Automatic annotation (TrEMBL):
PANTHER family referenced in this protein's UniProt entry, alphabetically: SEPTUM SITE-DETERMINING PROTEIN MINC (PTHR34108:SF1)
Region (Disordered): 98-121
Quaternary structure (record): Interacts with MinD and FtsZ.
Domain (Septum formation inhibitor MinC N-terminal) ranges: 11-76
Biased composition (Low complexity): 109-121
Top-level taxonomy: Bacteria, Pseudomonadati, Pseudomonadota, Alphaproteobacteria, Hyphomicrobiales
Name the record gives this protein: Probable septum site-determining protein MinC
Keywords carried by this UniProt record: Cell cycle, Cell division, Septation
Cited Gene3D superfamilies: 2.160.20.70, 3.30.70.260
Protein role: Cell division inhibitor that blocks the formation of polar Z ring septums. Rapidly oscillates between the poles of the cell to destabilize FtsZ filaments that have formed before they mature into polar Z rings. Prevents FtsZ polymerization.
Entry keyword Ribonucleoprotein: no
Family according to the record: Belongs to the MinC family.
Domain of life: Bacteria
Domain Septum formation inhibitor MinC C-terminal span(s) in chain numbering: 134-232
Length: 237
């Protein structure tokens, strides 16, 4: 009896990386949740449509405490796609999966599938430009995501708009929306703008809402940067 080989190709699995927001609560959790509520009041759509990972490494919570924390976030319309920093014993049925150290990944070989042939050499290419320039203003409701590097806006960023950059953000008009720099884990990133009226600022995961911004800087040219775990702002004029 002659065996026949199926003409159907093997099932192929691919890895893909996404930019996720990582929430890292600190004790006392009730105070941290209150701060989160303040952020949500100022920027109610901030978590809408985002992938959110919960990093509980600083808490080492029990199963009951972790279950309660996930439930509290779900009540705030923040579904958690995965949890970092929790021991397996802390995760009960129905909890998000454990995640460890997100990083880019390529094609994942199927178990039992024949090894692929060695890839052909890739020709030399000019280095990619790690910056994005926007000639037009960013309107309310728009979200610009560029994790590869800096974002420069030649116009203004309207209230309700959002810029997320892996590097620094430069706004040559008014910054009235949300500016999130250093999203790729770049603490040296900065935010610059000609007219400072933001709803929310963030650099490398450290956030500040409008209520926490020095009113004396409003309407001025300003730069924002991190000094250790503190966010600094200073006028440029």
């Amino acid at each position: 009896m002659t065996s026949q080989t199926s003409s159907r190709p093997p099932i192929r699995f691919r890895g893909r990386s996404f930019l996720a927001v990582v929430l890292a609560p600190e004790a006392p959790v009730d105070d941290w949740l209150a701060d989160l509520d303040g952020l949500a009041r100022r920027s109610p759509a901030f978590f809408a449509g985002r992938a959110v990972i919960l990093d509980v490494g600083a808490l080492a919570p029990s199963r009951e405490a972790l279950t309660g924390l996930v439930a509290a976030l779900l009540e705030r319309d923040i579904p958690i796609m995965g949890i970092e920093g929790a021991g397996g014993a802390a995760l009960g049925p129905g909890m998000p999966p454990v995640l460890n150290g997100g990083r880019p990944s390529g094609e994942i070989p199927t178990p039992g599938a024949p090894a692929a042939a060695a890839p052909a050499p890739v020709p030399d290419r000019a280095p990619s430009v790690h910056s994005l320039m926007l000639e037009s203003p960013v309107r309310s409701g728009q979200a610009i995501l560029f994790p590869e590097g800096d974002v420069t806006v030649m116009g203004s960023v309207a209230s309700g708009a959002e810029i997320i950059a892996g590097g620094s953000i430069h706004v040559y008009g008014a910054l009235r929306g949300r500016a999130i720099a250093g999203a790729a884990g770049t603490p040296g990133a900065r935010i610059f703008c000609r007219k400072f009226e933001p709803e929310l600022l963030a650099i490398d995961g450290l956030y500040r809402i409008a209520d926490d911004i020095d009113p004396a800087l409003r309407g001025r040219a300003v730069q924002v940067w991190l000094d250790g775990d503190a966010m600094r702002t200073a006028a440029l004029d």
